[in-house]
Design a protein that fits this description.
about 500 residues, single chain, mainly alpha
């Protein structure tokens, strides 16, 4: 978790800095054009390997043979999807009435080929819990993508600066994975392994397809009915919730998946409980801070022209928190092979989201964000109810784990709201509110859930616990007793 969050913190901060610079160099329409192109890229990414690399993560036998199979098929799929993305360029341009997509999509589609070359290494690192290598690769991606984008934007490349930045980052990610993960393909795929891997990966791919449809429904409707400018505003409103909260769920899912897969089924309920507890401790204050400080944050980081992104950002923050809290639930079902439960949940959720966004899209980007947040909250509650029954988790225990961070977050949010009202300068509001609110949150959490914080410290940094256990207990002090002389027993 430490290395995974190292990637999360470092990579997302670098991306945030790069996005802030690019937002001042580029127009909302240019962001919107790339967002339209990424709709197709994100959808095709769910199909890019048909879940084969995810099946490799939970494989308990013949790991190297299955890695050979995964590599050959993943690279083949990557090349195929690069060609398919290029073919969709004219159709996308016609659908959204954006001629530039004809040339943008084929170049952006090359990401599939470059990423497929490192996908097996990425899965092996996850399986072996080698998040140090993955962190280095993801930081290389963030640095290269941001740096390339900024340089090209300064040179006047417009939307191409974002596209070529994505491509350069993918190449850097693949190169670092090949350097750090000690596995090289022998190009000897075993066809016998493929059906087993596809059975698991196929159902998971179905879930991922519907998840991709969910993730892009708002973008498609906004781009089609409201235009590229509104999509650019909406996309930037999603940027901070994505960077600061939603990626928390991505990291947690990547770490919990191989961890849950190795845990005895009887202990999985307890593991999910602990995961939900610490997800709340980390995710809830981040969401509250972002929702309260949304206006000064947007003004400070992106500038006045993005003011209309504030209200969608606040609603999308609730969506991001819902996704984050749902990750331990979904990962538990996936780790025990019960992806059918996920499929049963995501089918009605996708239908409801499409219907609600279609009805309210003409009300603007705030209404769309409200639909996304509301549907996510509803099906998070349903998924949690199913989980408590399947793994025999007592709901009262979940509430016992949840109330300390809820109370501490409420206190922090009050301080942040006072800072927003009392201070006019955006940067000063963010800094003062962040410091005071964060300090109050930690103090309240220490008072209300001290044992949880100590357990988290001892688990993450076992040297503290080892040092405390190794330290000899203090000798009782007897009043009036002289200390023993040298050479005498005490």
């Amino acid at each position: 978790m430490f290395w995974a969050y190292g990637s999360y913190v470092g990579g997302r901060l670098l991306t945030l800095v790069a996005t802030g610079i690019l937002a001042r160099l580029l127009a909302p329409k240019e962001f919107g054009l790339v967002a339209l192109a990424l709709i197709f890229i994100t959808f095709f990414e769910t199909l890019s390997d048909l879940g084969i690399t995810q099946a490799l993560v939970i494989a308990r036998e013949e790991e190297l043979e299955k890695a050979e199979t995964a590599f050959v098929w993943t690279v083949g799929f990557g090349a195929g999807f690069a060609l398919l993305t290029a073919a969709f360029g004219p159709l996308a341009a016609l659908f959204f009435d954006q001629p530039k997509l004809v040339s943008l999509l084929p170049v952006l589609g090359l990401r599939f080929l470059f990423r497929s070359l490192g996908a097996t290494h990425y899965a092996l690192a996850q399986k072996r819990m080698d998040f140090r290598s993955r962190t280095a690769a993801e930081l290389a991606d963030a640095v290269t993508r941001g740096g390339t984008g900024i340089i090209l934007a300064v040179e006047g490349f417009g939307a191409w600066s974002l596209v070529l930045g994505y491509l350069a980052g993918s190449i850097a990610l693949c190169a670092v994975l090949w350097i750090l993960v000690p596995w090289r393909p022998q190009f000897r795929p075993q066809r016998a392994h493929l059906p087993e891997m596809l059975r698991f990966g196929g159902t998971l791919t179905g879930v991922n397809i519907l998840a991709a449809i969910q993730s892009n429904t708002d973008y498609v409707f906004i781009g089609r009915f409201l235009g590229a400018t509104d999509l650019g505003l909406y996309t930037l409103g999603f940027r901070l919730p994505e960077l600061l909260i939603l990626n928390l769920s991505v990291v947690a899912g990547k770490v919990l998946y191989p961890a849950f897969a190795t845990i005895d089924r009887a202990r999985l309920g307890t593991a999910v409980q602990l995961s939900l507890r610490y997800t709340l401790i980390l995710g809830l204050p981040a969401a509250a801070a972002l929702a309260v400080l949304a206006h000064p944050l947007v003004l400070a980081i992106f500038g006045d022209k993005w003011d209309r992104s504030v209200a969608p950002m606040q609603l999308l923050t609730l969506y991001a928190l819902g996704v984050t809290l749902g990750i331990p639930v979904g990962t538990a079902f996936k780790a025990v092979g019960r992806v059918g439960v996920l499929l049963a949940l995501i089918v009605p959720a996708t239908g409801l989201l499409i219907a609600s966004v279609a009805i309210f899209v003409n009300q603007g980007i705030v209404a769309v964000a409200a639909c996304v947040a509301g549907v996510t909250a509803l099906f998070d509650a349903i998924g949690l109810a199913i989980l408590t029954r399947k793994f025999q988790i007592v709901p009262r225990l979940l509430w016992n784990a949840a109330w300390p961070p809820v109370v501490a977050t409420a206190g922090m949010a009050a301080v942040l709201a006072l800072a927003v009202k009392a201070i006019e300068t955006p940067w000063l509001t963010v800094l003062a509110g962040g410091v005071l609110g964060g300090a109050l949150y930690l103090i309240l959490l220490w008072v209300l859930a001290r044992d949880d914080l100590l357990r988290l410290r001892d688990t993450a940094f076992p040297r503290f616990r080892a040092r405390e256990q190794a330290a000899p207990p203090p000798e009782p002090e007897i009043v009036g007793q002289l200390p023993p002389q040298s050479g005498q027993p005490s």
